[in-house]
Amino acid sequence: MVNVTESGEGNTAITQYWLENAGGTNVSDAFPVAEIENTKYFPAYDNASQTDVYLTAQNNNYTSDTYGVTGYWDEETGVFYSH
């Protein structure tokens, strides 16, 4: 679950989020989230279960520009998302 409450790039700016394990391997797909959106739920890969995971983010414009993002995330919501 990701909920962006403030983005230094603007409330419609999109940031890509995904989960990684301690070794830096992606354990979910990347998903776009903007401040203007409600809480979004995304699935993780099976190998994300029962291990430490880290929320990773990247500017969707793929530039070296930086900005702050504030919000909430929870890797154990118990909510299942299907696409």
Which secondary structure elements does this structure contain, and how are they paired or packed?
Elements: E1 2-7, E2 14-21, E3 31-34, E4 53-59, E5 69-73
Question: Your description of this structure?
Answer:
The protein is mainly β and 83 residues long. The chain has one domain. It is 0% helix and 36% strand. The chain has no helices and 5 strands. The chain has a 3-stranded antiparallel beta sheet, with no helix packed on it. The radius of gyration is 13 Å and the shape is globular. The mean pLDDT is 85.
Radius of gyration: 13 Å
What's the helical proportion of residues? Answer: under 10%
Total beta strands: 5
Largest pleated sheet = 3 strands, antiparallel
Low-pLDDT runs: none
Task: Estimate the mean pLDDT confidence.
Answer: 85
Shape: globular
Structural category: mainly beta
Number of domains: 1
Report the end-to-end length measured between terminal Cα atoms.
15 Å
What is the topology, as strand order, of the major beta sheet?
Answer: 3-2-4
| Count of DSSP H/I helices | 0
What is the percentage of strand-forming residues?
35-45%
Elements, N to C (H/E):
EEEEE
